[in-house]
Design goal:
The protein has helices at 60-69, 110-113; strands at 8-14, 19-22, 28-41, 47-59, 75-88, 94-107. The protein has 114 residues and is mostly beta strands. The chain has a 5-stranded mixed barrel with strand order 1-3-4-6-5. It starts with 7 loop residues before the first strand and ends with a helix.
Length: 114
């Protein structure tokens, strides 16, 4: 059961092209987001769709895969963990971010996976 702790699996489409940077340390980091859609029936038995956006970050080899193969609209499956961090914005106010740190990526687009 330990493997279930802080484990996230998502399938979705990229909302924009990933932002990939090389840090001074030489590490590569990719920041991107995906949308997941849930279909359900409301109280009137009509189909409804709800979209949720997820902020993702990938490091090292995973970031290089993101850089080389993914673009806006790409469909992917990921496995990762939730991480929380904070930073001070331009006005000196503390901001908090929750994001998924990607451990594994599966490319689901047929043209991307070939």
């Amino acid at each position: 059961m330990n493997a279930l702790r802080n484990s996230v699996r998502l399938i979705g489409h990229l909302g924009d092209d990933p932002k990939v940077r090389k840090l001074e340390s030489g590490k590569t980091v990719a920041n991107f987001s995906i949308a997941t859609n849930e279909i359900y029936r409301d109280s009137n038995n009509e189909k409804q769709s709800e979209t949720t956006w997820h902020r993702l970050v990938a490091w090292g080899k995973q970031a290089e895969i993101v850089e080389n193969y993914l673009k806006k609209g790409s469909e992917i499956a990921i496995e990762g963990k939730i991480a929380n961090r904070s930073y001070d914005d331009d006005k000196g106010e503390k901001r908090y971010i929750s994001e998924v740190v990607v451990r594994e990526i599966l490319l689901l687009d047929k043209q991307t996976a070939n």
